[in-house]
């Protein structure tokens, strides 16, 4: 890797939902790899998966809890007056429940995302993020992404670098090559099971790949020092980057 696309962006209140959360929509502290890849694919107009390396970093001001309107229904459930709040007619009458629930929102999320696509797709990704065809969102559909700047930066490896922001770093056994592995010696950090790559089934549905579909990653806080295999760009010259 010799160059990358540096995306500096901001979101005011945002939810990157954890798949296992239902009663309260909990959020990851930073968007998972698949969420960022989906945003890039939407910007480029890609309809099939295009692999690319990412480094996701950010800082925020904590989280708040907010109420939202929740709709739920069962397939084929007939409308019952006094039980369902909404009636939908499509030949027959079907019932939908409407209520309130809680969602966890990250406040003032400042992010820097580095992207390394293939050489053939580099210009397409850069220009698509520089001039997106529509407002891009990251997280929920309504979580619009404020893109502050997009730059092409040169990157190189350094022996020792500090994290200037919080960052995802995959756990040791996720790395295919030992020479790329980043070893973390603080076992007390949170490990998230993040989604990354999908495939299209014969039925036309998206399914996470068995081997590369999910990534276990440490959530590393700023201030940590990495002493091997980290990158730095010529924009900040000191902030550590870890691509996966």
Can you characterise this structure?
- The structure is a single chain.
- This protein has helices at residues 33-44, 122-130, and strands spanning 3-14, 24-25, 53-59, 63-72, 86-90, 92-116, 146-158, 161-162, 166-170, 191-195, 198-200, 206-208, 214-220, 225-226, 230-233.
- It is globular, with a radius of gyration of 20 Å.
- It starts with a strand and ends in an 11-residue tail after the last strand.
- The strands form 3 sheets. Strands 1, 2, 3, 4, 5, 6, 7, 9, 10, 13 and 15 form an 11-stranded mixed sheet that branches.
- Helix content is 9%, strand content 43%.
- The protein has 2 helices and 15 strands.
- With 244 residues, it is mostly beta strands.
Q: Care to give the gist of this entry?
A:
The chain has 244 residues and is mainly beta.
Secondary structure layout:
Blueprint: E1 3-14, E2 24-25, H1 33-44, E3 53-59, E4 63-72, E5 86-90, E6 92-116, H2 122-130, E7 146-158, E8 161-162, E9 166-170, E10 191-195, E11 198-200, E12 206-208, E13 214-220, E14 225-226, E15 230-233
Parallel strand pairs: 2-6
Antiparallel strand pairs: 1-6, 1-7, 3-6, 3-9, 4-6, 5-6, 7-15, 8-14, 9-13, 10-13, 11-12
């Amino acid at each position: 890797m010799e160059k990358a696309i540096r995306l500096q962006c901001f979101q005011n209140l945002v939810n990157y939902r954890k798949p296992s959360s239902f009663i309260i929509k909990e959020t990851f502290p930073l968007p998972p790899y698949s969420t960022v890849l989906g945003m890039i694919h939407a910007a480029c107009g890609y309809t099939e998966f295009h692999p690319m390396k990412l480094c996701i970093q950010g800082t925020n001001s904590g989280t708040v809890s907010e109420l939202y309107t929740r709709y739920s229904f069962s397939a084929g459930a007939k409308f019952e007056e006094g039980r369902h709040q909404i009636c939908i007619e499509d030949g027959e009458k079907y019932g939908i429940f409407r209520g309130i629930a809680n969602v966890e929102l990250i406040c003032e999320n400042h992010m820097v995302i580095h992207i390394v696509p293939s050489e053939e797709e580099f210009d397409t990704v850069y220009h698509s993020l520089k001039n997106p065809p529509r407002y891009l969102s990251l997280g929920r559909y309504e979580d619009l992404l404020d893109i502050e700047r997009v730059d092409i930066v040169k990157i190189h490896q350094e022996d020792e670098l500090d994290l200037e922001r919080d960052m995802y770093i995959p756990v040791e056994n996720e790395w295919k090559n030992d020479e790329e592995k980043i070893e973390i010696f603080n076992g007390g950090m949170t490990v998230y099971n993040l989604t990354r790559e999908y495939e299209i089934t014969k039925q036309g549905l998206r399914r996470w790949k068995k081997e590369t579909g999910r990534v276990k990653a440490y959530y590393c806080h700023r201030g940590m020092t990495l002493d091997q295999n980290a990158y730095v760009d010529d924009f900040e010259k000191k902030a550590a980057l870890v691509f996966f």
